[in-house]
Amino acid sequence: MIRVTVWGENVHENKNQKVRDIYPQGMHGCIAEALRKDSELTVQTATLEQPEHGLTSAVLEATDVLTWWGHMAHGQVQDAIVDRVQQRVLQGMGLIVLHSGHYSKIFKRMLGTSCSLTWREAGEKERLWVCNPGHPIAQGIDRYFELENEEMYGEPFGIANPEEVVFISWFQGGEVFRSGCTFRRGNGRIFYFRPGHEMYPTYHHAQVQRVIRNAVHWAAPQGSRWIDSCPNIPVEKAPEKIVHHGPTMQHPGPAGRR
Ligand code: ZN
């Protein structure tokens, strides 16, 4: 079983009737419901207004993959929680950052770059091209799929060079954008996926749901946990016996001094 926590800022849904009409359970509720159709996943949600944003140490310890949607309240996310999420990603937790999450504290922290882009809200068509058809995240998707109405995001996208680009979007207005990108930080796998403006029913779209589900499987922790401290390995614990070693603080050496 892969344990998924779907994090949602949940602010637009409470402020804007149009958004609430599209997502009565919140965007996080829609994404979670779609993931629950996969019997290999156990899914819970967490939102900004909860204590510790719903991301307590216990919750994160029990999370294999975290998905993140935020927009207007990035600044309200406490730095201590960002530290905690970063630590878990370095240990191996998967992180899937959605749409305007490109400007979240956690995404900028993990990438170390501006994560800026160009944008336009005109309800235009988006065509997402699969540019890496062998990638696990692209499975079940044809050469491309289209969203009739979306916000435009355009290049240049201020990200660190992705390890892999899985999708590139073309917009009706002519711009293009690297809309599905993978990264690794420490033991953790990160996937950024562009669609998901709150004014459109994007997370109800079957192929968008398919991509997110594929990404959860891809981002699930692999192998052992990252060593995130700096333990000392004393001379007597070295894999090979060290007979002649130079002076150190603990072992002044044969002469006793330098
Ligand atoms: Zn948006």
Radius of gyration: 22 Å
* CATH fold assignment of the domain at 2-113 and 179-219: Rossmann fold
Q: Report how far the terminal alpha carbons are from each other.
A: 57 Å
Give the percentage of residues in beta strands: 25-35%
Give every kind of bound small molecule, once each. zinc ion
Quickly give the CATH architecture of the domain at 2-113 and 179-219: 3-Layer(aba) Sandwich
Spatial strand arrangement across the major sheet:
2-1-3-4-9-8-7-5-6
For the record, the CATH class of the domain at 2-113 and 179-219 is Alpha Beta
Looking at CATH, the homologous superfamily of the domain at 2-113 and 179-219 is: Class I glutamine amidotransferase (GATase) domain
Number of strands: 9
Structural class: alpha/beta
Strand count, sense and barrel status of the largest sheet are:
9 strands, mixed
Count, helices: 7
Taken from the alpha-carbon principal axes, the silhouette is: globular
